[in-house]
Specification:
homodimer; alpha/beta; Spore Coat Polysaccharide Biosynthesis Protein SpsA, Chain A; 2 domains; five-stranded mixed β-barrel; globular
Amino acid sequence: MKTTALIMAGGRGERFWPRSRRNLPKQFLSMTDDGKTMIQLTVERIRPLVELEDVYIATNASYKALVLEQLPGLPEQNILCEPVGRNTAPCIGLGAAHIAKKYEDAVMLVLPSDHLIKRNDVFADTLRAAVGVAEAGENLVTIGITPNYPETGYGYIRYSKETRQGEAYAVERFVEKPDRETAKQYLAEGTYLWNSGMFVWKLSTIWKNFAKYLPEMKAGLETIGTAVGTPREDDVLQEVFPRLASESIDYGIMEKAENIFILPGDFGWDDVGSWLAVGRIRKTDGQNNVLSGNVVSVGSSDCVIQGGGKLIAAVGLRDMIVVDTEDATLICAKESAGDIKKVLEQLRDAGRDEYL
Amino acid sequence: MKTTALIMAGGRGERFWPRSRRNLPKQFLSMTDDGKTMIQLTVERIRPLVELEDVYIATNASYKALVLEQLPGLPEQNILCEPVGRNTAPCIGLGAAHIAKKYEDAVMLVLPSDHLIKRNDVFADTLRAAVGVAEAGENLVTIGITPNYPETGYGYIRYSKETRQGEAYAVERFVEKPDRETAKQYLAEGTYLWNSGMFVWKLSTIWKNFAKYLPEMKAGLETIGTAVGTPREDDVLQEVFPRLASESIDYGIMEKAENIFILPGDFGWDDVGSWLAVGRIRKTDGQNNVLSGNVVSVGSSDCVIQGGGKLIAAVGLRDMIVVDTEDATLICAKESAGDIKKVLEQLRDAGRDEYL
């Protein structure tokens, strides 16, 4: 059975402002020393399992040109433009509808476009094992990340070590972002993994689950699917998609369905959730700084400084993030990285849309 | 007797980089909310005592155009260009030589060009009193600043409360920059003032002192003075001035001469020695920030942020200095302001002269 992939690339992440903008979100930026963008790395690391012609990118129309530019060779019809963001269930359903036009059945990988993975070979092995479990029955498989600290920003998935299916374990339940004490408990129990938002299933399996848990949505998706490849394709999409319920695949299907399995992943995963991640990901100098671009540092340490053309002189800085772009420079204490969105709020309120 | 003034404006201060540059030092920048440059303010505040035609500016040739631009109405021949920096004694002597071509005798004010004074009226009153003391005999008068904390970055002058000459006191001795304990002692004793580098004397008095303590320098200055207004003026200056000893007026004359008097000044003086001063001088917002230019601040306090055209977003900053210019941005912890010169050293070593 063919293995296909749907990469979800519609996000508009604000946490990498000023490099990320409304017209250039995180998945189209490079965060690593190799200069490759996150979506390029995402495609690159699944290529051992999936032909490029079987890779589908779900995004929105304003990013289509970026996708084409960054993924040369990808068939243009594989870029699926959501008319509006409707959370992950309709997005995945749209992907399934397109893949169903090409293959009677196939394995479908569902992946975020803006995470980093250090050990691509381990990741490919994990995906292969997941494909095996998905093919073996009507199983919904997810990849969980083995937690190494009590993160409170992720959802967790509890699994049973007793019930196995190949290398995968049976999922007992999905849990929301915990508080710190609960997260510590999860870590101590050793039967919880981070929810990475990566899924593997057969087209036929996910369709059955749509039919069971989201039947109205499935009807809409079928209408859209019928029009794919016809002159009415875009009109139908524009008319039907916005009416689909905004629902996550986790809540809409995964938390309710049976035969959910999870594979623990231990491949150096990072969701690159904020500028803080760059300090973890990129090469540091002797003072634990990540410096790039036109920067002179005097007595600075533990900083992330991304210079541009203009000279940035950093003197005596500690735990700071500095990001220089053509029209805006961010200077942010690491502990205040969560407040970058307040800058965007202020700019929006002031009508200074050119900076968004 | 006419009152004249020599304003010393040859400094190349690096502590206000990146706004100050080799071709635009501090005295030609505005540090205050009114937008006037420091040299403009210096001239403005002595105008109650001195006609513009009697104001002389000692600087170097590369700043002549700036002086003309910032001080319209000043006679061009009143701009005295030192071929090389030779400390304050030759500079003051050059001023005296020029003034001597115009007036047989006159009172001469000698003033730095890069200090700020809050209460101009009190300052003018103090100068008037100093002029009175200077005219009353062969007195060398200096203005001392009443210290309000044990600063270790200034020289101090000890005076006698017993011996007075009008409102001035007899100077007992000049002392170098003290350590903190000594500075505290000076403050407690109440007979020490900060050395501000402002002097008042008659031309005839300072010449007599040059003759007594710096006779060789005086001979050179007379050679230069004889040529002033002749076609040979510039040639003589270029030939003779560089050979004069590099000597401060404090060490060369003031610390040795007799009849030294001091007037305590209490007029809101600030030498604007570094970016830290800007936090004292300019209007602050509710979080004790001094913000100007294109700046968005989120949760920042006690910062000096001078934006330019590019947007500066300051998030969660404490005690920072940020200065944005066309080609360089300084980001500096306040406690590291003294290290800005190390940036310039690095740039010099790297041959990046365009930033100096």
